[in-house]
Design brief:
With 202 residues, the protein is an alpha/beta fold. Strands 2-1-5-6-10-9 form a six-stranded mixed sheet, sandwiched between helices. Strands 3-4 form a two-stranded parallel sheet. Strands 7-8 form a two-stranded parallel sheet. A hairpin with a 3-residue loop joins strand 9 and strand 10. The radius of gyration is 16 Å and the shape is globular.
Amino acid sequence: MSRPDFSPAADRNKQALLDALRQLLPREGSALEIASGTGQHVAWFAAGLPGWSWQPSDAQADALPSISAWVAQEGLRNVQIPLQLNVLAAQWLPDDALFDAIFCANMLHIAPWATCAALMQLGARHLAPGGQLITYGPYLENGVATSTGNQVFDQHLRQQNPDWGLRRREDVEQQAARAGLQLAARHAMPANNLLLVWTRMA
């Protein structure tokens, strides 16, 4: 078993995210994590929400060993084998694969804009009745001043890759609406991040 990778950012925000998920989610359910990265989040959430079954995934095959290593290190039994899953792929999961929650942290700003529409379409297809798609990260918002840190971060991302950058929340809402989802809740998080909850339109 390979050693798990470590992300300082994931370590910093994991408890705040778990606290938010405990408020949002029932005691039991099934969750799909998109862009699991190192695996630190899913391991922390699975330990903190033992009534939930977690399916981690990442677009990069080389991320999967780290996810498995974190799960093994923590001795977790409620985490499935990680999947290689790219939201831009033509086929995501079997059509009958449904989840009570789909969680995606810090992907939209370090991926092409097309991933936003794809993520919303995936959510619309694979959320169980009453399910929630939960996204986390930094956003721009109309009428809300952008912090200096987020301005600098946005410029840095766009210099790295013109397809990257902080997304405007209202633009994300448009993509969600096209997929049949609506913004149900907006939660301010530490370090000028937002936790957004998306559900099916009535």
